[in-house]
Design brief:
This protein is 27% helix and 31% strand. By secondary structure, the protein is an alpha/beta fold. The protein has a single domain, classed as 3-Layer(aba) Sandwich (Rossmann fold). The strands form three sheets. Strands 2-1-5-6-10-9 form a six-stranded mixed β-sheet. Strands 3-4 form a two-stranded antiparallel sheet. Helix 4 packs parallel to helix 6. The two termini are 17 Å apart.
C-alpha cells in the first residue's frame, strides 16, 4: 500500500478498478480525492449459473469468454490502478489467467495492480476478506463468512481454491513490466505489479 500512496495524492484524476468484494469506504476514499472508481465483485459474478457450459467430455465448466465480456468490458488502457485483493486464490481456476490477461489490457502503461496471495501456512479455511482503505497506507480487513451457513443452504461458501508460490505468481503476471513481492501479516503476500 505504501508504494501506491504516492499515486493517491495525484492532482490529476486517476481511474481505479476495485474487483474485490464491494466496499463503500473504498468508493468514498477515492471519490473524495477526485478520482474515478469502478467497483465490481468478480468473485460473486463468477458464481453466476448462466456461465456454466459443457466441455467436450460433457463436464460442467465456466465460460471464461462470456465472463470476461460481461464483467470486464472496459476500454483498453483505461485504469491507472487495479485492486485485485485476494481474488485469484478464491476464483475458479479457469478464470484466473483470462482475468489477469484482461486486466493487463484495461490498464494504462505504467499502471499498478495490487494483489494479495495466501502463503501455504494460511490453511484451507483461510477467510476471504473485504478490504477497506481507511487512510493512505492503512487497510482494514473484514473476513467474509467462509463457512456453510445452515440458514442459507443455497449459498456456496468461499473457500481457498489454491495457494500460488512465487514462481506461479511471476508466471501469472509475466506480461507485466515488473513485479515486487512483500511479505505481510496474516500469511499473506502483497504483490505489486506494473503494466
Amino acid at each position: 500500500m505504501t508504494e501506491l500512496t504516492r499515486l493517491f495524492k495525484s492532482e490529476d484524476p486517476l481511474c481505479v478498478l476495485d474487483i474485490g468484494a464491494t466496499s463503500a469506504s473504498n468508493i468514498r476514499f477515492f471519490t473524495e480525492k477526485g478520482h474515478r472508481i469502478y467497483s465490481q465483485d468478480l468473485l460473486e459474478a463468477s458464481t453466476d449459473s448462466e456461465l456454466l457450459t459443457k466441455d467436450d467430455q460433457g463436464n460442467a465448466v465456466l465460460n471464461s469468454k462470456k465472463f470476461i465480456e460481461e464483467n470486464l468490458a472496459y476500454p483498453n488502457g483505461h485504469f491507472d490502478i487495479v485492486f485485485c485483493w485476494n481474488l485469484a486464490d478464491y476464483m475458479d481456476e479457469s478464470l484466473v489467467k483470462p482475468v489477469i490477461a484482461r486486466l493487463w489490457s484495461v490498464m494504462k502503461p505504467g499502471g499498478m495492480l495490487l494483489a494479495f496471495f495466501h502463503t501455504r501456512e494460511a490453511g484451507p479455511d483461510a477467510p476471504y476478506y473485504r478490504y477497506h482503505l481507511t487512510a493512505t497506507d492503512i487497510l482494514e480487513m473484514h473476513a467474509i463468512n467462509t463457512k456453510k451457513d445452515p440458514r442459507a443452504p443455497s449459498v456456496k461458501p468461499l473457500t481457498l481454491q489454491r495457494v500460488f508460490n512465487n514462481r506461479h505468481i511471476e508466471n501469472l503476471f509475466r506480461d507485466f513490466a515488473s513485479i515486487k513481492f512483500f511479505l505481510s501479516r496474516d500469511n499473506i503476500r502483497e504483490v505489486l505489479v506494473v503494466r
